[in-house]
Amino acid sequence: MAAEGIKSGAFVLRFFEMIFAIVAFSTVVDYDGLSRIKFVMFTGITGFIIALFFMIAYAVGVGAARGIFALVLDAIWAIFWLAAAGCASSVLTDYSDYATSKLKASVAFSWLAWFLWCISTFLSFKDWRGGVSGPAPTGPPGGIPNSSVSMV
Known about the structure:
Elements: H1 2-7, H2 9-26, H3 35-60, H4 68-94, H5 101-128
Helix pairs in contact: 2-3, 2-5, 3-4, 4-5
């Protein structure tokens, strides 16, 4: 079971989310006096922890790491990454005279992390819906499908 979780695409996606989060927050530590950069650091550190949590859950086969829980968490962090990437981009434009390659790397990896979390949100939504598009199937009215029990 553990080998299947590690070989899954979701595990690999979480691994890259974790790496991109590390790069996004670790490259802007020098600018931590700015509140916008503190938000990037918060999003990066918490995104790293969440991705690590999901990787461990996939590796040990915890079923709660999928479904509505993952969907809600992914959607919230996709929004956080969008805001963090915007904040980092605004710092880059506001302080263009002091922009270093570290700040530019943080901006790039923040946008890439946002993209990865959007993919995770989409995949979590598909997983939550059961991978089937359209309305959920319904049984015959007034009874349990394939059952001899009457609902009278």
